[in-house]
Amino acid sequence: MRGSGLRRLREDLGAELIRDITLVCLAVGVVGVSYGAITTSEGLPVWTPTYLSIVVLAGASQFLFTALVAAGGSPFAAVLAGLLVNARHLPFGFALADTVKDHRWIGSYLMIDECVAFALAQRDPVRRRLVFFTCGASLVVCWNVGALVGALAGTAIEDTDAFGLDAALPAVLLALVLPALRDRGIRRPALLGAAIALVVTPFVPAGLAVLCSLGGLVLARPGHKEPDRPEPGRPEPDRPEPDA
Amino acid sequence: MIGTTEILVAGAVLGAGTYAYRVAGPLLHTWFTPSLRVQALMTIAATVLLFALGVTSALMDGTHLADAARPAGVAVGAVLAWRRAPFVVVVVAAAGTAAGLRLLGL
Questions:
Q1: pLDDT of amino acid B12
Q2: CA A151 to chain CA centroid, nearest Å
Q3: How many CB pairs under 8 A join A and B?
Q4: Alpha-carbon A34 to chain mean position
Q5: Per UniProt, what is the membrane topology (chain A) (predicted)?
Q6: Which of A6, A217, B4, B20 is most enclosed, with most CB atoms within 10 A?
Q7: Higher per-residue pLDDT: B59 or A4
């Protein structure tokens, strides 16, 4: 029963996509290890990484929480900073509302950046749903296992930069989003938005710069040219995701 | 240093707030279905945010510029992705470039 279910999933997703998701899960897992290690080496209790990973499940805000609290900041400030960083999940929820509509409580919990990017790269709604839930569930497991291992191992693996993981995760997002950017109606707001975000990053609190990228949406007024082909992730048939 | 209760409460508040962001869209969706145009706009908004997140985390480390290795690695990955290289190649090349440059002491 279970075996056939897994085999079915494998057939539905395709070997290529499963490999891609596995790779991202591994990378996220290793970042989870470093998160756990950094958090406990900063003197926070060993259960903290696991607790935050379960109740928050948003890596960037968890790292920030650790950094602010370890620097002697108040928990109140750490929560506010985290909420600012995570505000981007609000539009994610609207973009994926249809995708999670049958399981919205659990689906909303799974809206992790990489998972959102994987899902939005799929055009077909059924496939998008399958990819979202598969990727989300896998990421939850990897992130939590990583955080726990890191917390227990202490300072064993703290510097994941040596493995280039700090370059791998932005590359994951770009690789998943770039196909949508072949559509001019999306490329213009995205490029404008990224430029705005870069310019304001040095001057605003963490998280706000990324939100400012939505200004690109206002300036570029997308969809005016191609109102009938708005889906990103759509175009090229030989896209990375299913190019097996 | 922060106490146990403070971590528990702060984590719970941050978790609840984050979940509220995520669930707002799906919940609203059950009361009314936004027009296709609005849905498309939301998808573009999410794409713009993810792209900005990728670009800023490639170039910036906090509020200052990242070291050269990270943007170099991401740039290699981005070029490969634009040229439709397989996803695995993109990610491994990005990480490998950054790690290699650091190994060389750059």
A1: 97
A2: 22
A3: 330
A4: 17
A5: Multi-pass membrane protein
A6: A217
A7: B59
